[in-house]
Each structure stands twice: as C-alpha cells, then as structure tokens.
Amino acid sequence: METSSRRDRDAEGRARNARPRDGLGRPLPYGAPGVERQPEGVVRSPDETVREAQRLLDAGMPFHAHEVFEDAWKSGPESERELWRGLAQLSVGLTHAARGNAKGGATLLARGADSLGRYVGIPLYGIDLGGLMAWARGLAERLPGPVDARAEAPRLTG
Q: Treating both helix axes as pointing N-terminal to C-terminal, what angle do 62-75 and 81-99 enclose, rounded to 10 degrees?
C-alpha cells in the first residue's frame, strides 16, 4: 500500500493523520520536515496554558496554539469552557487568515471575540479579554489582505 494513501490509526483504531505539518498546520508530504505537533490531551494549569499558547503564537504557530487551548477547554471546568474555546477560535481565525482564507478567518475571529465577551470584567489568569476582542475585530475588518501570523500574534495578557 502506498504511504500517501494509507490511513494513520492510533492504538484504538481511530483515524489519525501523522503527516508532518507546517507552522500553520497545513499537511506536508510524508517524510518532509515539519513542525513538531502538539501532544493531545495534555492537562496544564491555566497559567501554563496561557504561557505555552503565547510561546506558539509568538513563533507564528497559531494552529498549534489552538491545540493547547483545545486541551484546556476539554479538561477545564465547565464554567471556563467558553473562555478556552473562544481563545482557540481566535487562534484558528488567525490561522485561516494567514493561510489566505479571509472569510473563514473573519468568521472565527468574530466567533472567538463573542465567546470571550461573556467573561469581560471577570479577572481570569491575567488574560486581556478586552484587548483580545479588539484585536480580533480589528484583524477581521482588515481582511482580505496578507496576514503574517507571527507579526499579527496577539498578546494574551495585559
């Protein structure tokens, strides 16, 4: 069987894509050098989540930052689910915008900003909710246009 057509599976038989990916999460050909993927299911403290996601955003890897936020949204308390989901949506919105998908980017940036809106005024882990919402809406308004994920990376904390 050809390597390119084989479906990657985990130990439980679920489909997994082990192809290498670039910094924006786009699949590369098998055997190509890629960016190391974020391990799934990592439970971090909220502060660790923010630090790791900021590191990835600063490196121009918003797709990978979204995976960190996704772990927090899946493992954190129900009361914070929309916070982490909103941050993941902002990261995916930046990913789409940097890939040239203006419509998808704008949609996810707006959706993420809306998700964060319910937490405004509640101090959570030093996250600058108002600043992130303004950043997301501003970026969405500038689309379409070229977006450099590293240069456009938001600051998560104030």
A: 160
pLDDT digits (tens, 9 = 90+) for 103-129: 999 999 999 999 999 999 999 999 999
Residue where the block lists tokens 């772990």? 71
CA distances to 10, 111, 148 from 57, rounded to whole Å, are: 28, 19, 11
Instruction: Please give the model's pTM, rounded to 2 decimal places.
Output: 0.85
Q: What long-range pairs does 20-25 form, CB within 8 A, spacing at least 24? A: 21/63, 23/59, 23/60, 23/61, 23/63, 23/64, 23/149, 24/61, 24/62, 24/63, 24/95, 24/98, 24/99, 24/149, 25/63, 25/64, 25/95
